[in-house]
Write a structure and sequence with these properties.
Layout: E1 2-6, H1 17-26, E2 29-34, H2 39-42, H3 52-62, E3 67-71, H4 79-84, H5 111-128, E4 134-138, H6 154-168, H7 171-178, H8 205-233, E5 238-240, E6 242-244, H9 252-256, E7 264-268, H10 270-276, H11 281-286, H12 295-306, E8 311-317, H13 334-344, E9 349-353, H14 378-391, H15 394-397, E10 407-410, H16 413-421, H17 430-442, E11 448-451, E12 462-465, H18 473-481, E13 485-488, E14 516-524, E15 531-534, E16 537-550, E17 555-559, E18 565-570, E19 573-576, E20 578-580, H19 582-595, E21 607-612, E22 615-620, E23 626-627, E24 635-638, E25 642-643, E26 648-652
Helix pairs in contact: 1-3, 5-8, 8-16, 13-14, 17-19
The structure holds beta-D-galactopyranose (GAL).
Length: 655
């Protein structure tokens, strides 16, 4: 359990650095991330480097025993570079270019920009790659943030065509795969294929999907170009990138494949995230100062999977932020709680953003561990408390890594893209559905591994698939081989890899293990709400429902009030033929868990549990005092069972 901080020496007079470093060490901070936006200081003019200030900053921090994470500065191309190569500015869907004057103003497909990035990365890595205090390197910053990916530039068009040629070989194969006979869209050669934008009505969904796949690969290769340089010059350091919460523009599993990163890191702003995702307003209001209890956990569990077990929080909210619709001050305790929550989900390091609030420029309303006048902020005081507790508690200092959970939730980036391209009904958002399932599991006390559909699923007791647009034979084989119970949600198996309806109707290949077919699918306006009860729970379908026909061997376990099946099953495999209201998801998942031999716990509202290394942590996100369900002879290593809002405790079960 280590605590870090993000620091920008270039934004403060040198006379402050030594005191900053000393206070960081005193606060119990072990890691400091620096440099990720400082290109204009590292290279003030083309080819003219100034390392002297960075040398001094690194030495000053290292002298206090602090370990450094160095960021390559490529999220902030300097003005001289834009002046020389204005063509590296990204192009928006409407054909206009983003301007300079903030950050991320580059086209990820630009060869020129990629060369510049490799050049500055190489210069930095040559200088600091072997420095003993530099333990990790971050490439760029939040790839894809601010919707600068995708870019619709001439460079992107050129590279997209090459990507298509690689994928399809011949243009005839592409025409067949996309169904281009429809509306005379057949291309005579790859040179006629355009970018899927500015079409009078929808572009071909297959075209859109391939463009998203291509852009996702571009993000991964952009990182790899820098990672390769870093591996050469800094062979002993961890290479990483800081991903974002609830972010699906690229496939993070593909990004991380083949050891492209050593550890997955992500940036956690729970309150702002709660405000900006598709939650009902009542939930946003309820958790306005604590963040929704599952918002951070969802990404902790997702990035633990992306990092094959290793993850950090690279930026952690330390107080009010500046970028959501509303930015309240967190409830007392939350800044401390979020660190323990991350650790309980397996994080090795939680690094707060940022050391000190900056009184000028874009983020002046964004808090840090210190106020602009250098006083410790309320969040900073909570971090001081956490580091003291950790330092004084052997059980927290030497916590073993997270073990495999009994429950897996399959999260799939392509499914997100497919249903964004073809929502079919307002309100259908795959990630929101996945989050609802996740939340229903967490409310019942389960630890959850979020995994890719390609992961080995054989060791889980319960596998939950909120939806999986393309179900191939390999995935069905996983179901056949496993002893787990499976819950598979709506729209699963509804498309082929080429974005067409399967010949055998949805759910395609899934029919091998669960024989039913989707005859028609409907999206539901809010006034269309087929009702249903499952056990004690009653509710309705929302957003989406399917009219399914069970075939021989399938059982109907529940029906809507108009007679259509809502749940069909065979043996260990269940299918949910609609997006159901939350209480029904809770019931369906609880039943499946019990059938698989697991024991759901009915936790008080706002309370969550997470287990790691023999400890159980409990967190109270609710607005009333609650009792954590610790067994009678539990040994507490942190806090106690009675938890007020924003409080946390941890215990070891008596054995
Ligand atoms: C992140 C970003 C940081 C900072 C922060 C503010 O998205 O990586 O540089 O802008 O947000 O919350």
């Amino acid at each position: 359990m280590q605590i870090g901080v993000c620091y920008y020496p270039e934004q403060w007079p040198r006379s402050m650095w030594a005191n900053d470093a000393r206070r960081m060490a005193e606060l119990g901070i072990t890691h400091v991330r620096i440099a990720e936006f400082a290109w204009s200081r590292m290279e003030p003019r083309a080819g003219v480097h100034d390392w002297e200030w960075l040398d001094e900053a690194i030495e000053t921090l290292a002298a206090q025993g602090l370990k450094l994470v160095l960021g390559t500065p490529t999220a902030a191309p300097p003005m001289w570079l834009i002046e020389r190569h204005p063509e590296i500015l990204p192009v928006r869907a409407d054909g206009t270019r983003w301007n300079q004057g903030s950050r991320r103003h580059y086209d990820i497909a630009s060869d020129i920009y990629r060369q510049e990035c490799v050049r500055i990365t190489e210069a930095m890595a040559q200088r600091y790659g072997k420095h003993p205090a530099v333990v990790a390197w971050q490439t760029d910053n939040e790839l894809g943030c601010h919707e600068t990916v995708p870019s619709y530039s001439p460079a992107a068009l050129r590279r997209f065509r090459a990507w298509l040629q690689q994928r399809y070989g011949t243009v005839e194969a592409l025409n067949t795969a996309w169904g281009n006979v429809f509306w005379s869209m057949e291309y005579p050669s790859f040179e006629q294929v355009g970018l899927p934008v500015l079409t009078p009505t929808d572009a071909n969904p297959s075209h859109l999907l391939d463009f998203r796949r291509y852009m996702s690969d571009e993000v991964a290769s952009f990182h790899r170009e820098q990672a390769d340089v870093l591996r050469r010059h800094a062979p002993h350091a961890d290479v990483l990138h800081n991903f974002m919460g609830f972010f699906t523009t690229f496939d993070h599993y593909r990004f991380a494949a083949d050891k492209a990163i050593d550890v997955a890191t992500w940036d956690s702003y729970p309150i702002a995230r709660t405000e900006s995702i598709g939650l009902p307003d009542a939930q946003k209001a309820r958790y306005a100062r604590t963040a929704h209890p599952d918002v951070s956990a969802f990404d902790h569990d997702r990035y633990r999977g992306v990092g094959a077990g290793r993850f950090w929080v690279m930026e952690q909210q330390a107080g009010p932020v500046n970028w959501a619709a509303w930015n309240p001050v967190p409830a007392p305790g939350m800044v401390r709680l979020w660190a323990y929550e991350a650790f309980a989900h397996g994080a090795e390091l939680v690094s707060y953003f940022r050391w000190r609030q900056c009184p000028y420029a874009q983020e002046q309303m964004h808090s840090g561990l210190n106020l602009p006048n250098d006083e410790l902020s309320p969040g900073g005081k909570e971090v001081a408390q956490a580091t003291r507790e950790i330092a004084g508690t052997e059980a927290l200092r030497s916590l073993a890594p997270t073990e495999r959970a009994a429950v897996a939730l399959v999260f799939d980036y392509e499914t997100q893209w497919i249903f964004e391209i073809q929502r079919h009904g307002a309100g259908f958002d795959y990630q929101t559905l996945a989050f609802d399932y996740y939340s229903a599991l967490r409310e019942q006390g389960f630890d959850v591994d979020i995994v890719s559909r390609h992961a080995d699923l054989s060791a889980y007791r319960l596998v939950v698939v909120p939806s999986l647009a393309v179900i191939d034979n390999a995935f069905v084989a996983q179901i056949e081989r496993s002893d787990a119970h499976w819950v598979i949600g709506p729209r699963s198996g509804s498309k082929t890899t080429n974005f067409a309806i399967p010949d055998t109707l949805p759910p395609g290949a899934l029919q091998r293990v669960l024989p039913f077919q989707v005859l028609e699918a409907e999206s539901l306006r809010p006034t269309l709400a087929p009702a249903i009860s499952i056990g004690e729970a009653s509710g309705t379908a929302i957003h989406w429902r399917e009219h399914v026909r069970p075939n021989d061997g399938a059982r109907v376990d529940a029906r809507f009030d108009d007679g259509w099946p809502a749940l069909v099953s065979r043996g260990r495999v269940r299918y949910v033929a609609a997006w159901l209201t939350h209480g029904l998801h809770y019931a369906v998942l609880g039943d499946a868990a019990r059938a698989s031999g697991l024991v759901p716990q009915a936790l008080p509202e706002g309370l969550r549990l997470a287990r790691r290394g023999g400890l159980t942590f409990a967190f109270n996100f609710g607005d009333t005092r609650v009792q954590a369900p610790a067994p009678a002879r539990a040994q507490f290593v942190l806090g106690e069972a009675a938890l007020c809002t924003g409080d946390v405790c941890a215990w070891r079960d008596p054995h």
